[in-house]
Amino acid sequence: MEQTATVKIFSKDWFRTHASSIAGYGGVLFCIIFFSITTPIAGQSIWSGEKLATLISDVIVLAILSVGAVFVYSLGSMDISIGKQVGLYATIMVAIANSTGSLILGIVISLAISVVIGIVNGATGELLHIHSVISSLVFMMVLGGISTIIYSSMGSRNVALKTIDHHIFKNTWVMVAVLVIEVLIVSFLFNYTKFGKNAKAIGANPVAAQQSGINLVKYKVIAYVIMGVFVVVAAIFQMGYTGSASDSTGTGFEMNVMVALILGGMPLSGGMKSRVSCAVLGSFTFSLLNVGLPIIGIPVNTVNLIKGIIFIIVVLITCRKSRGILPR
Amino acid sequence: MKKGIMKRVLAIVAAVALLACAAPTMAAEAPAEGGTIMWLSNLTAGAQYDSAVAYLTELCNALGYKFTVVYGDGFNDAAGNLQAVKNGMTNDVVGLIASQDGGLQAIMEEYPDLYVAGYNTDMNSVFGEGGENAGVLENDHFLGTIADGHIDGADTAKAYFDQCIEKGYKKVALINFPGFAYPNLEVAAGAFKGMVEEYNATAADEDKIEIVGDVTTLMFSPVEDSWFLDGDNGNVDAIMGFCAGIMFIFPQLTSAIANGMCNPAMKLVTSGFDTDASIIGAIGDSEGKVISCVTVSPAEDPAYALVLLDNAISGNQFDDLTVERIDAFEYIIDSDADIEAVMSKSLLGKPDASLAQIPVDMVVNELCKKNNPEATYEQLKAVFHDASLLGPDPLEAE
Predict the structure, then answer these.
(1) Do the domains B36-149+298-330+358-390 and B153-296 sit in the same CATH topology, yes or no?
(2) Looking only at Cα atoms, what is the longest distance across chain B?
(3) I need a labelling partner for B244 at 20 to 30 A (CA). Which of A182, A264, B7, B390 fits?
(4) Could you tell me the CATH superfamily of domain B36-149+298-330+358-390?
(5) Contact indicator for B215, B233 with CB cutoff of 8 Å
(6) CATH 3.30.1120.10 applies to domain B153-296
(7) Is the pLDDT of residue A169 over 80?
């Protein structure tokens, strides 16, 4: 009996069914084992205190964004304005903190803006029958324009905290604690509430979900608002990393989130196979490559090429022909 | 074709490519005795990058260091630069040549033992009024910087104005980057206007210079083709491209001339450099050359930063060191002879350290204090401002 079960576990069908999990867990496990062996040979272990801190600081913003984005991606939607949102929120926080002496007001204003953007992003796609990317594309351009106007009026390309000590946001334990809390909250909402189950159902088949009485607009708006809140959290850490913001803060983050989710095995088409662990695993794989490859002597300009190739391999492994991985 | 075969073939090709990328690491270099010098580069490719890498590699080898490059954030973002340094950092890195100043204070806080010197950047955030990295001036591990060209925009303007007078341009247009990103270039454009006004006040009517329209600001994207059709822009004698016109103006100007959208004899005075044949072929003073003048800093400049780093690392710093930012000497390439000399005889034209006008041997044995106890900071500065050493004339000499 046991022998039969073993064969079934490693059968072709089993691999097909669990391709995304294998890619997600396999990728991060491979990176951990590979870099644990190779980096000490190259002279510095990736698990040394210094490199571990680098890894955490590299992963924190990406992981916060990716975990926050799980709801939106599980719907089969995406948001390409998150990079510009991070940039704008970081700028607002620094600018207001410099004039008021406190970060609180900047954070509250950023939260308010993120909620408005979340509502508009979530609702327009469904109400106007346009792809969710379109409204986020509009926000990407609008926020970029606002950022340019702010920096033009300040006469500088960057702005730094003057009096506020930002070092708490660089503390590794604080970073880890915030990420763990976020993962617990999102996992609970995603796996144990009606909202999470409905989000996956919408991603799996929006027509069937709607005909089952699920309010698509409501759930999409909630998903985008949740993501917006975590974008603000990510912006706090991004700003706190150097105590500054610039007109390019957040550039490319939307793509990094997408790559991290795919590396973690998340089907970008959303649905029942969406998992919070995809975001965490993918973010760690992404950052392990960022930190590990230069240690073993890979030229920094080749790291992106290698990440791209790994990305292609994971896409090829996880791609399901009937639906594909791309969002609708 | 069998179902899924394409997917497998692609996966195998990707895996082979991955191995090919990783292969060089199998032959990992032994760490150098002196440690590693890291360059936080603002460039990723091109003639200036290739020359700097070739020169710095030779210099570092000669001084007993390993040399490595990390690429700063494309927009000089503080967090991007810090992360780039962190990702490339290994425990043998002892010095950083910074070509970007974003996040410099955070980098130096993160790595308090690291010595830092700048190259190719005026470090306005350090030395400028109210700069967000001004705190590094209090750090004794910060050693100063050599700018890319002039620190004071008025000096840049003077070079452009001199070209105007020398070449007899009577109608010009100004194109620039936004002032919030490049305040010194904004100063340059303003100073240029002032010089023209001052000149016009005493010049005969036929000699007066007209500046067409206001300064066109490029938001880091090339000038639009329609710019040449706007107002009198298409009829100017020359464009004063304070921005990196080689990249942001030259291709569009060439196209506009070819399409009859502007004065066919229109010229470009600008900065930047590349050894691309179409660019090199367009620089000079003979007929049909579009770029009448280009200013560019010599590729030998990183040696300034490396000497300061080597002195600090070896504990032999100059007694007269002043932590400051200094101008770079500039090549002003405005003739066929100049560009030919630069291309055939300079480090800028060919990434070959043996062509350096400040030879590796001179840097190691004369400028570095550990090998020449008599060396001084004033001598170092003088070398990097020495027209008889770095100027185009020695290049042209047989």
Answers:
(1) yes
(2) 84
(3) B390
(4) Response regulator (3.40.50.2300)
(5) no
(6) no
(7) yes
Domains of chain A, by residue range, sit at 50-251
Rounded to a whole number, what is the distance in Å from the CA of B76 to chain A's nearest CA? 8
In Å, how far is B198's CA from the nearest CA of chain A? 27
pLDDT digits (tens, 9 = 90+) for B365-396: 999 999 999 999 999 999 998 877 776 666 66
Between CA A108 and CA A41 the distance in angstroms is 48
- Which chain A residues have a beta carbon less than 8 Å from that of B14? 309, 312-313, 316
Segment 28-47 of chain A within 8 Å of chain B by CB: 38, 41-44
Domain ranges for chain B? 36-149+298-330+358-390, 153-296
Rounded CA-CA distance B38/B353 in Å is 18
> From CA A263, how far away is CA A257, in angstroms rounded?
10
Distance, CA of A235 to CA of A228 (rounded, Å): 10
Average pLDDT over residues B241-269: 94
Residue of B nearest to A311 (CA): B14
Distance between CA atoms of residues A96 and A159, nearest Å? 11
Cβ atoms of B297 and B357 within 8 Å: the answer is no
- Find the angle CA(A85)-CA(B110)-CA(B67) to the nearest 5 degrees: 105
Q: What is the DSSP string of B121-135?
A: ---HHHHSTT-TTGG
Please state the ipTM of this predicted complex.
0.76
Reported as type and span, the H/E element at residue B343 is: helix B336-345
Question: If you average pLDDT over residues A212-230, what whole number do you get?
Answer: 94
Q: Both tokens of residue A30?
A: 């491979």
Average pLDDT across chain B, whole number: 89
Contact assignment for B91 to A298 by CB distance below 8 Å: no
pLDDT higher at B291 or A21: B291
Contact check, Cβ <8 Å, B28/A297: yes
What is the Cα–Cα distance from A171 to A188, expressed in whole angstroms? Answer: 26
d(CA B298, CA A77): 51
Does pTM top 0.80 for this prediction?
yes
Give pLDDT tens digits for B309-357: 999 999 999 999 999 999 998 889 999 999 998 998 899 999 999 999 9
Q: Give the span between the Cα atoms of B353 and A51, in whole angstroms.
A: 34
Angle between helix A194-204 and A216-242 (nearest 10): 100
Asked whether the beta carbons of B282 and B291 are under 8 A apart, the reply is: yes
How far apart are alpha carbons A5 and B368 in whole angstroms? 72
